[in-house]
Each structure stands twice: as C-alpha cells, then as structure tokens.
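FAQ: What does a ligand-bound record look like?

Like this one, built around uridine-diphosphate-N-acetylglucosamine:
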Amino acid sequence: MIAITLGTRPEIIKMAPIIRECEQQSIDYYLIHSGQHYSFEMDQTFFDELRLPRPQYNLNAGSGSHAAQTGKIMAGVESLLLENPPEFILVQGDTNTVLAAALAASKLHKPIGHVEAGLRCFDRRLPEEINRVVTDHISDYLFAPTPEAVKNLKNEGIDQNKIHLTGNTIVDAVHQNVQISCRNYDVLEQFGLKSKEFFLVTFHRPENVDSPATLCELLNGLNAIYDEFSMPVVFPMHPRTKKQMTAMGLSPGSIHIIDPVGYLEFLQFEAHARCILTDSGGIQEESCILGVPCVTVRKNTERPETLLVGANILSDCSSGEMVEKTHEMLERKPDWVNPFGDGNAARNIVNILDHSG
Ligand code: UD1
Ligand code: UDP
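The answer part, i.e. the structure of the complex:
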C-alpha cells in the first residue's frame, strides 16, 4: 500500500503518471490531498481532465503562512498515517505539502519516496530549496530525474543505495497528454491566436510578484516584449499574482491576462508558443521537452540541464535584459535533446517500490 500525497497544481500533474501506473499494475494506493491548492482551476480541473480518482482524504489546509500551512498538513498527515498505515509514502517536488508530509512520515518511521529528488538552486532564501534539502535528507528512496540531481545528492553525503535515477514524470505527463490535448481543444481558435506568433508567460514566485517594485518592473518588461516583437503576450495568471496585482492596483498594459487553464489547454499553449517567459519550475521542463525556447526570469534555476542543452536562458526582470534574452532565444535552433528521461519515470518508480515491498 502506497500513500500518495499531493496538494498543488504541479504535484497533481506530476503524480498523475504514478497514479496511472499503480492502477495499471493493480498496486494498492490511496491519495492524500493536502488542500494547499483549492481553487477549481488550480485543483479540481486537473482531476477532471486527467481522469484521476478523487483523493480518499483532503486535509483542506488552504493558504497561510509557511509555518501555519506546514503545521496543519503535518498534523493531518500524521493522523492519516496512523489511521491507515501504508508501506510507503510518496511525495513529489518541493512545496510545503512535500516538506510537511515527509516530516510527519519520518517521525512515524514510514519509508518515504521523494519523486524529483536532488534538485538544487543553491539559494536557501527560496522556500522550495529548504523543502528540497530537508525532504531529501529524511527520505529513503530518492527518485532523481537526471544525473545532475544524482550528483547533488551524492555531494551532500546521501547514501548512494537510496538514490535511483528514474527520469522525471513530467516527460510521462507530456507524452501521455499532448495528443489527447490536440484532439479535445483548440486554444488557437478559442483565443484568436496563430501558432508560433505569440508569447506565453507565467509568473508566481514570491521574489517576482510579492514586491510592487519588482512586479511593476516585470510587467514593464512584458510590455516591452509586446512592443518589440508585435506579438500577443498571453498570461494565464496564477492566483497569487492576481491577488498581488489587484492589491497593488497595477495595470497589465498590453498583456492579455487570462485565468489559469487546465493542463490539456496549457500544453497546447506551450506547444504553439513562439517563446515562453516564466519563473515556473515545471514550465522550464515542459518547454525543453516540447522544443519551445524559454526565458526564465530568475537569478538561478534548479533545472540547470535546460540551460546546458540550450533550451532555456536566465534573465533579470529589467525590460532591456528581458528583450535581449528573448532575442537570443528566438535565434536558437530548437534542436536540443530532452534531458529529463524517456517517459518511463513512473514505471521505474513504481517498480522500485514494488521490488522493495
Ligand atoms: C506553491 C508552492 C510553489 C509552487 C506553486 C505551484 C510552497 C512554498 N510554494 O506556491 O513552490 O511553485 O505552489 O503553483 O509550497 N491561492 C488561491 N487558490 C489556490 C491556491 C492559492 O487563490 O488554490 C492564492 C492564495 O491567495 C494564496 C496564494 O495564492 O495565499 C499563494 O498560495 P500558496 O499555496 O501559499 O503558494 P503558491 O504561490 O501557490
Ligand atoms: N499549468 C497549467 N495551467 C496553467 C499554468 C500552468 O496546467 O494555467 C501547468 C504547467 O503545464 C506545469 C505546471 O502547471 O505542468 C506548473 O505549475 P506551476 O508553475 O504552478 O508550479 P512550479 O512548477 O513552478 O512548481
């Protein structure tokens, strides 16, 4: 029996291939949803579109400070693990849900599998970096997506018998859903866009959107991209960013803001975009897999593989640099090789647990 925990948009998307694999192999599992994300377009839409079973448990943790959110999820996970003890607990990524579930499980001596282990941006001011480091050091199965992630774990002295190079389940997710997406949606028609003639943008990191000065600069940068390239800039806006824009009274200018969309629609937006500007972790991976150039507006990235293969570039949020880095990416030929695996990560992970159980 595996307890699969999830709680935010990227965890639902990246755990979906593992849930499917458990179903296919008739492996017993149950789902714990932390409730960290709860708005329909950040949560339920993915269960509907990806045809995932409803979680047996929802902790309804909701939003809050880091400590409040983490504490609520820890207490909830602890009760559930005592009530319905699994053989393993799986966590995915670097959110507060991951940290909380892993901490609760480790105190109960439940073996923890960390999916997407070993990512590092080497900047401890980012909450995700703390979550990654702590989770990796208390996990028993470290499912590292790339050799770079394996190297990071070994450098921190983690026992190499615990480390498994599996690929990233995001490749499975893209392969499984890109065709379904094309059959069911036509976002170009729906939003009046032309393939390879628009920019797709997403921003939600606190360091980019929580300070008025930075968010204002970022919006100016996106407007400068619109002016420079004369192509629509489409921004499916994360609720955190929307909340901050409203509170700060900022205007989008020429940027086309829409609500967050489901995964099938978003995959299409990505595949048809001329270039993606983002601060998302998962979107850096997907753009690399789909062969779409990416400009990551951050000081660092825990996905350096995307920079190394030439699919991605870092930029600060000044208009000048955003425009310059976008020009640079548009000039690159998108012939890089996807470094995140062959689309069998979920099977690799489930097989490892199955043979250990
Ligand atoms: C969280 C993760 C981040 C991940 C992101 C994925 C942490 C520390 N952060 O950031 O690593 O990249 O999810 O999207 O775990 N809100 C809603 N509806 C929702 C969820 C959030 O309106 O369903 C709003 C609330 O105002 C909330 C804010 O967004 O205060 C931030 O939500 P939170 O879960 O704290 O962090 P994210 O920015 O979503
Ligand atoms: N995504 C989506 N709809 C959107 C924006 C993003 O389905 O409107 C998907 C995207 O394809 C990727 C994931 O959400 O798989 C990334 O989530 P997010 O950027 O919120 O988190 P991060 O990856 O940065 O933790």
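Follow-up question: can I read anything off the structure? Yes, for example: The first strand starts at residue 2 and ends at 6.
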